[in-house]
Structures are given as structure tokens and as C-alpha cells.
Amino acid sequence: MLCGRWRSCRRRPEEPPVPAQVATPVALAPPDGGSKRPGLRALKKMGLTEDEDVRAMLRGSRLCKIRSRTWHKERLYRLQEDGLSVWFQRRIPRAPSQHIFFVQHIEAVREGHQSEGLRRFGGAFPPARCLTIAFKGRRKNLDLAAATAEEAQRWVRGLAKLRARLDAMSQRERLDHWIHAYLHRADSDQDSKMSFKEIKSLLRMVNVDMNDMYAYRLFKECDHSNNERLEGAEIEEFLRGLLKRPELEDIFHQYSGEDRVLSAPELLEFLKDQGEDTATLARAQKLIHTYELNETAKQHELMTLDGFMMYLLSPEGAALDPAHTCVFQDMDQPLSHYFISSSHNTYLTDSQIGGLSSTEAYVRAFAQGCRCVELDCWEGPGGEPIIYHGHTLTSKILFRDVVQTVRDHAFTLSPYPVILSLENHCGLEQQAVMAHHLRTILGDALVTEALDAQNLEELPSPEQLKGRVLVKGKKLSAARSEDGRMLSDQEEEEEEEEEEAEATEQRRRAKQISPELSALAVYCCATRLQTLRPNQVPPQPCQVSSLNERKAKKLIREAGNSFVRHNARHLTRVYPLGLRMNSANYSPQEMWNSGCQLVALNFQTPGYEMDLNAGRFLVNGRCGYILKPARLRQPDTTFDPECPGPPRTTLTIQVLTAQQLPKLNTEKPNSIVDPLVRVEIHGVPADCARKETNYVLNNGFNPRWGQTLQFQLRAPELVLVRFVVEDYDTTSPNDFVGQFTLPLSSLKQGYRHIHLLSKDGASLSPATLFVHIHIQSF
Predict the structure, then answer these.
(1) Residue 322 confidence (pLDDT)
(2) DSSP H helical segments within 144-226, as ranges?
(3) Is the pLDDT of residue 40 over 80?
(4) Element (H or E) spanning 753, and its range?
(5) Residue 721 pairs with which residues in a beta bridge?
């Protein structure tokens, strides 16, 4: 039950004396395309001003950008003094934001010829002089060659130090870093003094549309020298006023009383009201010692307002339960008891009609925790199988190169097993070549026989298969074609859709399977799912069915509980309809509701579907395996997602405020967002819902709502909660600002910050939502 203290705390605080309109923070574009060199305050705070590698990056380097065998262009690259962005030269000057990339958007920095681009096109440059910067999301790799090996190493080491320091920064440090970077940009004459005109420019940069009279009053309140300029301590005072969080102050004062500090018992009371029923005085004392900035207060086991804000902005104050960020689930159950992160047409970087095929797409999928990837195999020249989307203009890559990529990158993020889903269109000879490459390249990592030949009634567990690679393909059996060889593992529907387009000879080859390839299908034997009759003989656990989304939805509607029971023991792969020419996705939630494990999506296509996928696999150490709810694992379960029963849980979310939302149009200073927040519930059909707040006019810096949204849930164990911020528009669809998705079971109660992500899943730090969450089960 909610105590009186909680009720009083969640009331809407007094409206703060802040601008009537506020705007979203812009990307940290370099001043004038990188021509100005603001102070080194930001890098000093990072402790890297004396680092030789970072100093070399600040001076800049002329690096050769490599795109093809003939496209090698020398460009200037230079680290900005914010320590967060790198400016680079372009042949044709563009808007400032098009001349930078951010350190926080880097996925990895690889030395030598460790990318597809450098392996193909970097032969003229020694590996010691080469590096690849791989980015999160859809941005292409940056393949570079330096003049010397030492210069290349300076960039590799320097970027590693910057990324490590950025990862170690608290949210409060990121915010301070962020605001001072804008401060230097707004200081147009770089004299370390701020005129009122420059202050107005700063406010627009950070998404604040403030009334001139009100802005000038704040300016004059800090202008103690009365010279129409702010400098030194006056600037810091102005920034402190700008970054005040009245709603946090109200909550803090509710618990701290008149002395304006929290004792350990008072902090414990706050934690209990947060829903942390098991919190102890020792935990409260530990939080004080971890987050309190004032040494005197820390010695007396007291927490000041600054320490309280540090705590609420930390991972421990976030909506995501920190205990769920590592592997915490039982990993010793059969594979069929887990949702498994799965990719469709993994080799594509764009659409399935004319997009680029690349081994880098596999690297990116593995970096996102994917554990089941698809290899669409076709006859290639010179006896070497190739991978591409058949009968389209997509480019082609070698099967051998993809297997090497699996060997090199499959286990960098997660140690749990990888499944190679083979869609095989090759003849017998090249199938034998495929089997040879799989065995020789993957070696002992490849599963070639059952782990326990005596126990074939149950699939092995992820723990048993750590570091191993499974092949999903057809198995030779009694069902044979006229030449004694069974149909290959084409997705059944795709086989039907493509059959008319295939040449007769190629179709004949594709309907055969070689003994060499058949032998590698041990635990994932591809089988056509016929019907789900209650009295039919159940298939073996190693048999895997592949269904397109339309067939899967039909089964869910017509055989709901039977399908759930089937999936308790067997793996089922679901993939998008072939009609999705632009590689669009379907919602994976409907398939998870029925216990389908391998719900394959186009990882190259951002959207809410991939947000749901990222949210589902956000927890359990992002290892790519999520234990299914108990009702989906029991062989005799009565659960039917179409009839889940009465409501069992009430979720109440009070949307309070947002902080430093990103500016959508960085090139237009006066473009400021009108944000609204939408909370979406994704679960069984009866639970699916969406509710939103009103929009706040012209305020992306610190908008306030204080609105309560409530949801009734029937199957809470399957629910994903998606928080979305949009820029309201009266005449056109709203623009996406940021989002965060997570399982309800990992959502912490109480006052929480939600750290927003971009469309591509990159951090939008320091952008956050501040909410109060209450979950009541009955």
C-alpha cells in the first residue's frame, strides 16, 4: 500500500520560475566547423589534458579515408576540446553537424585490416597504419590509414581512453560537461565572458525559448559586477540556476526536514517508500558514501541535495533494475525455454531489393546481442558458395567470409550459443564446400554431435553450449526425393514464393541436401510444421519449424494454447513476409506471447519493432537469451495469449519532468521542440495500450507535466513498457525525440530517471525523463 508520505511526495511541485518555453539540447557541433578552439575546461575535467595521445588528437591528423579500391581521400580529423566529438573535413562543406561524429556513438575501434572494407580495399596500406571506427546504429564504418603506425596507434589509444572516461562519467558529470561545451560555443568572441546576447544564444542552443524580459532578469541577478557581462563565478551561478531541479528539491525536503540534509535513517525511509522493502540502514549508509560529494557530510553519514541528485541520476536511481543488467536468470534449462535474439537476412545493411550485403552486418548484429543469424546461401563462381538475397540486386559476399566473421565476433559480447540458420539454395558440391568451411573455420566451436547421446528427449541448455555454434538445417531422413536426398532448408514460404522464378536446373539442385551438411544439423533440424493436433505423435525436441509472420499469427489465433505447448518443448523460428520489400519489420510481441523463441527481425531497420527487441533483450547481461515466463515453459500449460484471464496488476506512472531533450534541428537555433510523453504497453492483446501526456510548448530543456497514466495488466510477466518522447506538431505526424523500452519485470518502483535512446539505440545523454512508478499486484 502507498503510505501518506508517498502521496504527499508525488503531488505536482510548484511550477518553477523557469522559461515559459524550453528547447532540446543540440548535438555538440564544433564551433564554425572546427575552426575555433574553445578552452580545455571539459578535457581538464576528464583528466586527459596532459595525455600525449589526446593532445595529438587535439592537434589533428591528416588521415586517408578508404571507400573502395580507387577512392582513397586524405582528410583532416581533429578531436574537439569537449572531448566528446571529432571534427572532420569534407570535400564539400556542409552544415556544422555534418562535420562531426561523437565518441559515445562509437561501437568499436579496430586495429589493422579488421573490417570488410580494409580487407578488400586497404591492401596498399600496411595493417599497422590502419584502423576502423565502427559506429552504433546504421552509420557506415570509417576505414582510415595514417601516415605512420605510431599516428594510427595514437588514435586507437586516444579513442579508447576517451570512451573509457566517458563510460566512467556520472550523469551529473555528463550534464556539467554538456552545458560547458555549449557555453564555449555560445561565447562567440572567446573572451570567457558572456554578454546577454551570448546568453540568449546559449539558451536557444540548449532548447530554451525564454521570454527576453525574464531572461534578462536572470542575467542581471547574476551580474554582480554590473558591467553587462557574466564571467567566472557569475557564469557558474547562472548555470546553477539554469540546471536547478525544483521537483527533486521538493522531494528531498519532504524527507530531510528543516536541517536540509538526509540522515541515513531518513534516506532509508525514502528507499522504503520507493518500494525497496528489503533496504537496510547499511544500504542507506553505502549510498551516502558512494554518491555524497561533500566530505564533511559523508563523514557524518549525511546526504546533501547534491548527493541526492547524484544518486537519483545514477544507474541505481534509474528505472532499469541494476541487478538485471548482469546474467541473473537460470541458464541451465533447455534451449526451448528461452527467447533468443534472432536476425532475418542478417547479411543486409539496407533493403532486400538492392541493398548492400556485408560481413559487417553480422558484426553489428552480434554487437547487439543477436544469437541466431541467417545465411542465405547460393551457388557462387569458382566453386565457392555466396550469400545474398536471391533474384534481387543485393550485392554478394562469400559464405567463407561470413563463417570467419562468426568465428571472430560471435562471442565478443555474449558467451552463449550462436545458431546459424541456413537457407540453402546450393547444389550438392557447394553444400559439401559449405560443410567443409564450417568444420575447418569454426573447429571445436562447431557442434557436430550430441553432447549426451543418451538423452535426446530434451534440448541442451545455453550453459552447456557456451562458446558453441549450432547449425540449423535440413537433416537426411526417411522422407527422400527420387535421388535419395531430402529437400534443403529453404524457408517454406520463401520456397513457394520463389519457385516460379528459379531455373529448372537450379531448382533441382536446391531440392537436394548433401550428407556432409546434413551431419551438422544436430540440435536444430529444420522441419515443416504441419498441424498441432492434440493426439498426434509429438516431434523430437531437435526439430525446428520456420514460419512466416502470417502463418504464425494464424496459428496463434486458431491453436493458441496448442501452439504455446508446442513451443514449450520445440524451437520455432518466425520471419518477416517476403512482401516486405523495404525490409520493414513486424511486431515481435505477438510471437513472444505464444512462446516462439527465434523471432527474427531485420536488424538493419530501426523502428518501434527493434526498440521492442532491444528492450526484451536489454536484461540478463544482454546475452541474447531471456528465460520465458513459467506459463510458457510448462508442457501442460493452459495459457492462451488470446484469453489471458482477468487483470492481475495495476501499473501507475506519473510523468513528472524531462531534462535536456535533444534538439531535432541543430542548424536552426530557433527550432525548439514541443514535447509530449507517450507510455506504451506491449503484451498480450488485452494488455496492449498507449496513453500520453499533453504537450509542453517550446520547452525541451526542463518541461514539466505532472500527469498520471494508469494501466490494467492481465499477463504482466510478458509486458514491455516503452517510454516515448515526441515533438508535437499540429499539421503533420509528431517527430520522434527519444525512447526507452524495458520489461515490466525489470522496472523499479518509486522516483526514477529514464535515460533516453535514439532511433538507432544510441545514448542521448544527458537526456532523461523523471517519473514515479507504482506497481500493484492483486
Answers:
(1) 95
(2) 149-168, 171-186, 196-205, 212-222
(3) no
(4) strand 750-757
(5) 681, 742
Please provide the distance, in angstroms rounded to a whole number, between the alpha carbons at the two ends of the chain: 11
Query: What is the mean predicted confidence (pLDDT) over 600-627?
Result: 96
Q: What are the phi and psi torsion angles at 82 (to 5°)? A: -70, -15
Tell me the one-letter amino acid at 47.
G
The bridge status of strand 704-713 relative to strand 130-135 is unpaired
- Report residue 145 as a C-alpha cell: 590509414
Residue 15: pLDDT above 60? Answer: no
Instruction: Give the distance between the most distant pair of CA atoms in the chain.
Output: 96
Q: Tell me the C-alpha distance between 652 and 773, whole Å.
A: 6
List b or e across 665-678, with b for residues whose CB sees 16 or more CB atoms inside 10 angstroms.
bbeeeebbbbbbbb
Taking each helix axis from N to C end, the angle separating 196-205 and 171-186, rounded to the nearest 10 degrees, works out to 130
Query: How many C-beta atoms lie closer than 10 Å to residue 248's C-beta?
Result: 19
What whole-number distance in Å separates Cα of residue 720 and Cα of residue 656?
Answer: 21
Percent of the chain with pLDDT over 70: 87
- Give the residue from 325, 317, 249, 324 showing the smallest Cα distance to 773: 317
CA atoms within 13 A on the CB side of 447: 25
The three-class DSSP label of residue 754 is strand
Q: How far apart are CA 680 and CA 730, in angstroms?
A: 21
CB proximity list for 184: less than 8 A, separation 6 or greater: 31, 38, 39, 41, 42, 81, 82, 190
Measured distance CA(62)–CA(78) in Å, rounded: 9
Three-state secondary structure string covering 517-566: HHCCCCCEEECCCCCCCCCCCCCCCCEEEEEEHHHHHHHHHHCHHHHHHH
Beta strands of 464-542 (E only): which ranges?
469-473, 524-526
Alpha-helix residue ranges (DSSP H) falling in 261-319: 264-273, 281-291, 295-299, 305-313
Residue 327, Cβ neighbours under 10 Å: how many?
A: 18
> CA nearest 615: which of 280, 324, 309?
324
Burial tier of 306 (Cβ tally within 10 Å: 0-12, 13-18, 19+): middle
Handedness of CA 462, 465, 466, 472 (dihedral sign): negative
**What positions carry a catalytic annotation?**
344, 389
Whether 457 has a pLDDT exceeding 70, the answer reads yes
Residue type, 463: E
- pTM for the model stands at 0.86
High-pLDDT (> 90) share of the chain, %:
67
Report CA-CA distances (Å) from 584 to 60, 345, 351, 392: 41, 12, 8, 17
Q: Residue 460 is placed in which grid cell?
A: 541442451
Question: Quick one: how far is CA 416 from the chain centroid?
Answer: 19
pLDDT at 567 exceeding the cut of 60:
yes
Cα atoms in the 13 Å half-sphere on the side-chain side of 213: 0
Question: Cβ distance 228 to 234 under 8 Å?
Answer: no
Q: Count other C-beta atoms under 10 Å from residue 663's C-beta.
A: 26
Single-letter residue type at 584: A
Cβ count within 10 A of residue 232: 10
CA 30 to the chain's CA centroid: 26
Alpha carbon distance 58, 259 (integer Å) = 47
Residue 770 phi/psi, 5-degree rounding, is -120, 120
DSSP state of 320: B
Q: Let me know: does 611 contact 739? Beta carbons within 8 Å.
A: yes
Q: How confident is the model at residue 93 (pLDDT cuts 50, 70, 90)?
A: confident
Minimal CA–CA distance to 101: which of 73, 117, 71, 80?
80
Residues 6+ apart with CB under 8 A from 746: 320, 321, 324, 618, 619
